[in-house]
Write a structure and sequence with these properties.
Elements lengths: L9 H4 L20 E5 L2 E5 L1 H11 L3 E6 L11
Antiparallel strand pairs: 1-2, 1-3
Length: 77
């Protein structure tokens, strides 16, 4: 009997630590909600600066970890 296996990559197996209050934007010092991994290292950005610089970083981005969904208030009023 054979089973079809789903192909996985190393990045699929990595556990990404959530960003916390101590993680600040490398551009302005506000709380970081995006971690950008480049070959040279990581950068942390607030939502504003992540949007501003994403296009200019282009193919230098290895991984984009985005927690900006935490900025939305989904509670009913």
């Amino acid at each position: 009997m054979s089973y079809a296996a789903t192909e996985t990559t190393d990045s699929a197996l990595e556990i990404v630590a959530p960003l916390g209050a101590g993680d600040v934007c490398d551009s302005c010092g506000a709380q970081a909600y995006v971690r950008v991994t480049l070959h040279a290292g990581d950068l942390l950005f607030c939502g504003h600066h992540a949007s501003k610089y994403r296009e200019s970083m282009g193919d230098k981005i290895v991984k984009w970890h985005d927690e900006t969904d935490r900025l939305r208030d989904d509670r009913a009023h």
